Amino acid sequence: MSTIVRETLLIGGEWQKPTSSASLTVVSPSTEQVVGQVPDAGASDVHAAVGAARRAFDEGPWRGMPVRERADVLDRALTLLEAHLEEIAGLVTAEMGLPASIARRKIPGAVSAGRYFLDLARDTPVSDVRRTPFGPAAVLKEPVGVVASIAPWNGPFNMAVAKIVPALVAGCSVVYKPAPETPLDAFFIAEALTEAGLPPGVFNLVTGGREAGRALVAHPGVDKVSFTGSTAAGREIARECSGRFARLQLELGGKSAAIVLEDADPDTVMRGVAAGLFANTGQTCSAFSRILVPASRRDAWTDVLVAAAESFKVGDPFHDTTTMGPLVSHAQRERVLRYVELGWAEGAMTATGGGVPADLEVGYYVQPTVFVNAYNSMRIAREEIFGPVATMLTYESVEEAIEIANDSDYGLHGAVFTEDPALAAKVARSVRTGTFSINSFTHNTHAPFGGVKDSGIGRELGPEGLEAFHELKTVNLTRATEPLFI
């Protein structure tokens, strides 16, 4: 594909040149060639974008519109995006290496998820009059204000829609910053929102690196930060926001454990591990990166995990037969390979993988890898690697398996594989995570998603993903005013 050059930012409803000539280069992880260039916004650009969002929220018509009218505008934007889904899918493949055959299936799901939020908003009352011993009271759901929305690179278009649509339909104004590795698809969203008739300043797009992100998070005009990314960055954001009590929604890292019980079906486990760890080249925060198996059947389960890893065809993501593309960048590949070296140094062994495919000299590829002879105290079992690397651990009893699963700084996702429904329910209730799956790796966009401990604060998706952009106001009523709030 030819190089895509974007020279402007969307601020206050206008496409504007940034204040400096600095730019970000987008490199294809499969070809190592430049595929795009976008502005590298500075603090002054962020200040302008937040100012536009602030004015739009405080003075503009958007938050005062009936919810259904807001939903109709956003529905038009999603319809406009539908005409470009094939092009967007190709961009995502070029930006971050998601295999094209998967991107073509996955990208349309973003539009469906967006419409889910619109339907939800249309059906969710924004006021409720309650009878209390102190008289009637109206509880109002009001938009939280100006939202700084910062997305990661591992699912650019889908995560953008999931962050932007619920905030906008709730009546908020948004300043959106995509990841510097994957900014190109965000311009389609900005153009669709503008063409659909969104009032100026309600949505603003700034592309940039760390300077832009820090300026956005620190801006006093931002009422809420919605961030998905690393735990280290999340801590910085939390510290910055705590000083002014800005609202926070942080979806951070994970080191999720999949507990395989004695009676688990091997084919079900193989499918679950393939989807839950090796999909997206392991670049998924909720990945099953720790696989817990009974010590008595260690060898048999090793064979299953190896088969899951070796079922992937690693290669050019634009080929339809490819099921695993490259890691997003050279730096990310080096990080993953350093963890492989660290695992060996700690005494673990690789049952498969552990290096770069010999036939792929260009691109940031790495082999799907399974570590055995590992312990939960090892760094490969405790730290998020964010690549296709599984660490297999053994246990002697279900209670020990639960203990190992909970012995983690993270608590984002997890799973149990068993044919015993009662035991599955026990394990699901006992593992301390924000999300859990039984006999599967399931990403459910109609249910809340998020974590506990170092995996973050708050929830995205589901009805709770819409509620996250509301602030509650109680109005104690008189008899005369009560009809005005019903």
Number of strands: 23
Helix content: 25-40%
Structural classification: alpha/beta
Rg over CA atoms, rounded to whole Å, is 23 Å
pLDDT averaged residue by residue = 97
Largest sheet: 7 strands, mixed
Task: Name the overall outline.
Answer: globular
Q: Unreliable stretches, pLDDT < 50, 5 or more residues? A: none
Spatial strand sequence of the major β-sheet? 15-16-17-14-13-19-20
CA-CA gap between termini: 56 Å
Q: How many H/I helices?
A: 15
Percent strand equals 15-25%
Question: Would you kindly provide a written description of the structure presented here, covering whatever features stand out?
Answer:
This protein is an alpha/beta fold. Helices cover 38% and strands 21% of the residues. The protein is built from 15 helices and 23 strands. It has helices spanning 43-59, 67-82, 85-96, 100-123, 156-169, 186-196, 210-218, 231-242, 266-278, 298-310, 330-346, 379-382, 398-406, 421-430, 462-467, and strands spanning 4-5, 9-11, 14-16, 23-27, 34-39, 127-132, 135-143, 146-150, 173-177, 203-205, 224-228, 247-251, 257-260, 290-294, 349-352, 369-372, 389-395, 410-411, 414-417, 437-438, 452-453, 456-457, 470-476. The strands form six sheets. A seven-stranded mixed sheet has the order 15-16-17-14-13-19-20, with helices on both faces. It has a six-stranded mixed sheet with strand order 10-9-8-11-12-22, sandwiched between helices. Strand 2 and strand 3 (14-16) form a beta hairpin. Helix 2 (67-82) packs across helix 6 (186-196) and helix 9 (266-278) packs across helix 10 (298-310). The model has no long low-confidence stretch (mean pLDDT 97).
